[in-house]
Amino acid sequence: MRVAPSEVMGLLGPNGAGKSTVIAMMSCLVTPSSGRVLIGGIDTVRSRRQIAGRVGVVFDRARALYPRMTARENIEYFTALRGGGSMRSVARRAAHWIELLDIGKFAEVPVNNLSMGTRQKVSLAAALAADPGVVLMDEPTLGLDVASSLDLQQSIKRMARERGCAVVIATHQMDVAERVCDRVCIMSDGRALAIDTVNALLQLFGRRSYRIALRTQVTCAVEAAIVHSGARPGMPMPSEADAGGGFVVDVDLDDDAGLPRVLEAIRMAGTEVESVVRREPCLASAFLEITGTGKGQRADARYSLV
Amino acid sequence: MHVILWYEVKRGLLRRARSPMEFVTESLAVYIFLVVAVFAASGRVPVPSAMATMASGGLQGRAASEAMFAFACIFCCLGAVQGASLLATEEPGTATLDQLAMSAVPLWVIGLLRDIASFVSFIPSMALIMGAVSLTTGVRFPWPAAVALAPMAMMRLAMLGIGYALGAVALLVKRVGGLVNLVSMAVFALALAPIRQLDIGLGALGIVFPYRWWYGLAADLTFGGSETAGLLARGVAWPCVALASIMTLVYFFAGLLSFNAAFRTSLRRGSLSRA
Question: A5, A153, B116, B220: which has the fewest Cβ within 10 Å?
Answer without folding.
Answer: A5
